């Protein structure tokens, strides 16, 4: 069977949706030459009316997409780096997200914000390395963080077809993940439905994005000693709370590994919800970036603020000791 | 009834039609301010009195299927573009029958059926939305034009300048209408704007003119030229309308007693009243009949708004997601 990389899966989803629905178009910086490779081949196949290179005007082209959506289009914006979302936060959270309610349901804003290379950990320093999915989940914008190529394809497809704004964070550390699968089996993945990557009995590890692969690796290392269940929510908002509850009903122990800042991060929400509504036998533990982290440049410093496998292993050991 | 029909038969761009629009906006705003004082409109409004000529003149140059986006001072644009005054006032009063089902209020009034893509409470935010809507309309093969209204304060917002660049670069059928009323809340335009407002448009290669924003016919003439150019594929224009806000920035000022304009200035500003300027172009009979018609419309709007039910709090977050997704409640149950 052929290999499919995460990056190529995003590209395939764009190709398939552009071909399927004439309302879909792609816009962003350097999308025609496909600097990120995610938009490779789109210009040649769909032409300049469906693939728009924009000036470096993040705020304007983000709301431009909103205006096009108000006229029935389904824009997909590619952001070259996650920090650009801070520039366009007003346009996404305060404009696009609010239109449906503020107008009393007169309109919808089906824009997809695609962020390949989020949370870079390869020396991009303070202003290129954030992974700000928690901000959008907090604001109520549908937020997706796929871990695998098939989920990247399926969730981006669903995001484009969704009638609300959706932010799709494709983690930098997942872009080169490849799987061996039948391409004909690629299909949309619903928002808000998690995936158990590995069944286990002793502890539930909730992992987001590329950290799913770390969680599975740690689970494999511990196999025979500890039975770890790896639960990937796939979308952080809406979150699959039923899926989490079902896993915790089995294990009663919870560790969350989340590549966002500790304060008000997704891990905090998972812990709080589990504490409110699930039968935990011991206090849960989270592994995250530090509060308010600014990623330093030097390699060792960069890695020092990222959640890693050693921390996750220690966290699993901790909840099992009690 | 025959009288109302006779008035309604006049086209919006006729002298009678322009007068009817400025008069309707004026009386609507005056009655809305009364409803703020009586407590029927919660939170107050940004009155448009004095600036009516801009909305009336620009919208008279538009077709029903053209689009506008508006500002936090948006009732005038919404009425001039054709929204039902009764449902507009019901929206201001937060009623279930309002344009936005009581979810938008004064600053977000929208009526997609009339081409009103929403008033917007963030200064300068609507320009790029307008550009996107104009682009999509052109891609559909239509010749609709999209108008962005904004105030003098907005010309210092980066996103508006970015939007002008996109619109000019891609020759979008867009009209940028600046209502220069001299104040960004309380800051005078001379203390806020370096260079000129038309210079902002000229920098992007856009035809940019300044017109008398107190005269509906002058605004109409400039808007028509710009709209015709946009419709014919000639790209965007900027029209700066020199106008004057008769009332407060927000009705909150009535209580706060903020002072930033002296009485002489306000008095002399009010001397050039768009209602009087346009009214002078009508016969006495025409004016009387329009006034009576408008009065009946606004009376009916007030009655409709105050008689309308309040929205059911159970549905407070209805329409949050177009897909119907329900958010988790916050109430700790």
From TrEMBL, chain A:
Gene3D superfamilies given in the database record: 3.40.50.920, 3.40.50.970
Transmembrane helix among keywords: no
Molecular-function GO terms, alphabetical: magnesium ion binding; oxidoreductase activity
Q: Which SMART domains does the annotation name?
A: Transket_pyr
UniProt key word Oxidoreductase: yes
Q: Keywords of this protein's UniProt record, alphabetized?
A: Oxidoreductase, Pyruvate, Thiamine pyrophosphate
Question: Which organism is the protein's source?
Answer: Saccharothrix texasensis
**Protein's recorded name:** Pyruvate dehydrogenase E1 component beta subunit
**Which Pfam families does the annotation name?**
Transket_pyr, Transketolase_C
Provide the taxonomic classification: Bacteria, Bacillati, Actinomycetota, Actinomycetes, Pseudonocardiales
Please give the cofactor(s) recorded in the UniProt entry for this protein: thiamine diphosphate
Q: Report domain Transketolase-like pyrimidine-binding positions.
A: 4-177
- State the SUPFAM superfamilies in the record: Thiamin diphosphate-binding fold (THDP-binding), TK C-terminal domain-like
Automatic annotation (TrEMBL), chain B:
Does this UniProt record's set of keywords contain Oxidoreductase?
yes
Q: Name one GO molecular function term.
A: magnesium ion binding
User: SUPFAM superfamilies annotated for this entry?
Assistant: Thiamin diphosphate-binding fold (THDP-binding)
Which Pfam families does this UniProt record tie to the protein?
A: E1_dh (PF00676)
- Where does the source fall among the domains of life? Bacteria
Requisite cofactors = thiamine diphosphate
Task: Give the signal peptide as a residue range, or say none if absent.
Answer: none
| UniProt xrefs under CDD domains | TPP_E1_PDC_ADC_BCADC
Keyword Membrane among UniProt keywords: no
Q: Example GO biological process term?
A: pyruvate decarboxylation to acetyl-CoA
- Designated name of the protein: Pyruvate dehydrogenase E1 component alpha subunit
Question: From which source organism is this entry?
Answer: Saccharothrix texasensis
């Amino acid at each position: 069977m052929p290999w499919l990389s995460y990056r190529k899966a995003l590209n395939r989803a764009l190709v398939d949706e552009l071909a399927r629905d004439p309302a879909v178009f792609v816009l962003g910086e350097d999308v025609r030459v496909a600097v990120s490779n995610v938009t490779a081949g789109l210009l040649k196949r769909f032409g300049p009316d469906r693939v728009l290179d924009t000036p470096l005007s993040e705020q304007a082209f983000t709301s431009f997409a909103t205006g096009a959506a108000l006229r029935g289009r389904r824009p997909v914006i590619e952001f070259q780096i996650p920090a650009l979302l801070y520039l366009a936060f007003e346009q996404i959270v305060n404009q696009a997200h609010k239109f449906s309610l503020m107008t009393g349901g007169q309109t919808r804003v089906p824009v997809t914000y695609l962020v390949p290379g989020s949370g870079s950990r390869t020396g991009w320093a303070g202003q290129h390395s954030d992974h700000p999915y928690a901000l959008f989940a907090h604001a109520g914008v549908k937020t997706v963080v796929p871990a695998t190529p098939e989920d990247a394809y399926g969730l981006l497809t669903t995001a484009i077809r969704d009638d609300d704004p959706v932010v799709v964070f494709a983690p930098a550390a997942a872009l080169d993940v490849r799987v061996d699968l039948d391409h004909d089996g690629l299909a949309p993945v619903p928002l808000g439905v998690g995936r158990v990557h590995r069944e286990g009995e002793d502890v539930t590890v909730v992992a987001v994005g590329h950290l799913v692969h770390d969680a599975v690796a740690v689970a494999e290392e511990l196999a025979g000693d500890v039975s770890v269940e790896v639960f990937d929510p796939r979308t952080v908002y809406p979150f699959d709370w039923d899926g989490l509850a079902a896993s915790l009903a089995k294990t009663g122990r919870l560790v969350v590994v989340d590549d966002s800042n500790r304060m008000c991060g997704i891990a905090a929400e998972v812990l709080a919800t589990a504490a409110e509504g699930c039968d935990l036998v011991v206090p849960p533990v989270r592994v995250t970036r530090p509060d308010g982290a600014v990623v330093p440049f030097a390699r060792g410093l960069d890695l020092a603020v990222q959640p890693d496998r050693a921390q996750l292993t220690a966290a699993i050991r901790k909840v099992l000791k009690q | 009834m025959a009288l109302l029909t006779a008035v309604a038969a006049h086209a919006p761009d006729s002298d009678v039609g322009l007068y009817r629009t400025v008069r309707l906006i004026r009386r609507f705003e005056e009655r809305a301010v009364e409803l703020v004082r009586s407590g029927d409109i919660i939170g107050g409004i940004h009155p448009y009195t004095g600036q009516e000529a801009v909305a009336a003149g620009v919208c008279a140059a538009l077709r029903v299927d053209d689009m506008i986006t508006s500002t936090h001072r948006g009732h005038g644009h919404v009425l001039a573009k054709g929204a039902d005054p009764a449902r507009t006032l019901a929206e201001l009063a937060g009623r279930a029958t309002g344009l936005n089902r009581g979810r938008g209020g004064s600053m977000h009034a929208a009526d997609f059926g009339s081409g009103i893509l929403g008033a917007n409470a963030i200064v300068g935010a609507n320009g790029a939305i307008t550009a996107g809507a104009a682009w999509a309309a052109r891609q559909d093969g239509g010749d609709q034009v999209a108008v962005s209204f904004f105030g003098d304060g907005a010309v210092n917002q980066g996103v508006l300048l970015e939007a002008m660049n996109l619109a000019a670069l891609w020759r979008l059928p867009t009209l940028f209408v600046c209502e220069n009323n001299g104040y960004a809340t309380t800051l005078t335009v001379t203390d806020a704007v370096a260079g000129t407002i038309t210079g902002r448009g000229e920098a992007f290669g856009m035809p940019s003119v300044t017109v008398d924003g107190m005269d509906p016919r002058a605004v109409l003439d400039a808007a028509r030229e710009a709209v015709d150019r946009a419709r014919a594929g000639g790209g965007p224009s900027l029209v700066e309308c020199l106008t004057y806000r008769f009332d407060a920035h927000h009705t909150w000022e009535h209580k706060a007693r903020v002072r930033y304009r002296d009485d002489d200035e306000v008095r002399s500003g009010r001397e050039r009243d768009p209602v009087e300027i346009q009214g002078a172009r009508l016969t006495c009979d025409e004016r009387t009949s329009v006034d009576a018609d408008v009065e009946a419309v606004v009376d009916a709007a007030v009655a409709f708004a105050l008689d309308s039910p309040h929205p059911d709090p159970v549905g407070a977050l209805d329409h949050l997601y177009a897909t119907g997704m329900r958010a988790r409640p916050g109430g700790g149950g």
